[in-house]
Amino acid sequence: KETKEREPLSLWLWWVERFWFPENVTWADLEQPPPGVSYPQLGHLLFALPLAVGVFLLRLLYERLVARPCALLLHIQAAEPRQAQPNDVLEKVYRSKTCPDSKQLEGLSKQLDWEVRKIQRWFRIRRNQDRPSMQKKFCESMWRFTFYLGIFIYAISDLWSPWLWDVRQCWHKYPFQHVSQGQFNYYIAELAFYCSLMFSQFIDIKRKDFIIMLVHHLATILLITFSYTNNMIRAGTLVMCLHDASDIFLEAAKLANYAKYQRLCDGLFVVFSLSFFFTRLVFFPFWVIYTVLFDSWEIIGPYRAWWLLNGLLLVLQTLHIIWFYLIARIAIKAIFKGKVSKDERSDVESSSDEDVSSTTKKTSNQTLKPKDVNQVANLNGDAHDH
Questions:
Q1: Domains within the chain, CATH numbers bracketed
Q2: Which residue has the higher pLDDT, 199 or 1?
Q3: What is the 3 state secondary structure string of the chain?
Q4: Does the reported pTM lie above 0.85?
Q5: Listed GO molecular functions (predicted)?
């Protein structure tokens, strides 16, 4: 009887092994590494959960003790928005729908004996109350800039290995490849960061693509988990390192934007665009995808998870092409036409950057407006998005 009860479980474990590993490789093979060798185990990733809480608390301290003083030093104030007139009826409607339609506005007008324009003005002021201040945006971007810069420097310095320039070594003796302490630290740090991002998204600047980014962060966490579990760590570190490289310049451009250093912002935006192009449209497809698609086929042969992972990488590359097209279009409009259409993925209400842009209308049309950088940031999302 016990044997019959174990059969479904044994079949399920057999199918999982056949899915995630090449032929003749099992979970048991990775559970008993030779002396001095370490193989990845799924339980190792549990360290990321308490570390994610630590990363979140570190972020709060960093924003309060480092980023905010820097913002004040650059004269970036946390301006208090105008307060809407207290009204229980409108507040109740606002909690369910921040932008009521014309039919709802007419109903509220009759109920409150207010003009429709007055109600529209109340909702506009109320939305502005929830709009994040420039200082809050600066602090959030400074934290991300610091993390991306630090983790990228760590990846380059500590993970400098032959397979960084000879990508075929990503597949030699796969999946029986030693996981160094540096690789483990890098994976755990990235996983903890994205776990903290997923949860802190509920208190960060709220955007219209909240659900999309939540799903994106969850997908990123799953991909990091899967690549670690089946020991695709060498290829995984290449993917994460390439994505972090361009995000450094994006966050730096946003910081210059908030501090109103327009020329610096323009220069950093150009560097970001170039780094995005080379890392995600050159190195990523012709270096990373090539080795995962062709070198691995030649050295270890395809297996079930191979098709899934390559499919995900090709989907990611498609997104890179779309994102770069949108980035290039925004940049061209900003530089040569001096105007950019509003991005639907911007903040809850018209970004406070638009208020700043009104103070720069007298500047040349040959410069990027403050909201242009935010639009690119929204299009790129957290798409360091792996």
A1: 38-75+133-340 (no CATH), 88-130 (1.10.10.60)
A2: 199
A3: CHHHHHHHHHHHHHHHHHHHCCCCCCHHHHHCCCCCCCCCCHHHHHHHHHHHHHHHHHHHHHHHHHHHHHHHHCCCCCCCCCCCCCCHHHHHHHHHCCCCCHHHHHHHHHHHCCCHHHHHHHHHHHHHHCCCCHHHHHHHHHHHHHHHHHHHHHHHHHCCCHHHCCHHHHCCCCCCCCCCHHHHHHHHHHHHHHHHHHHHCCCCCCECCHHHHHHHHHHHHHHHHHHHHCCCHHHHHHHHHHHHHHHHHHHHHHHHHHCCCHHHHHHHHHHHHHHHHHHHHHHHHHHHHHHHHHHHHHHCCCCHHHHHHHHHHHHHHHHHHHHHHHHHHHHHHHHHHCCCCCCCCCECCCCCHHHHHHCCCCCCCCCCCHHHHHHHHHHHCCCCCC
A4: no
A5: DNA binding; sphingosine N-acyltransferase activity
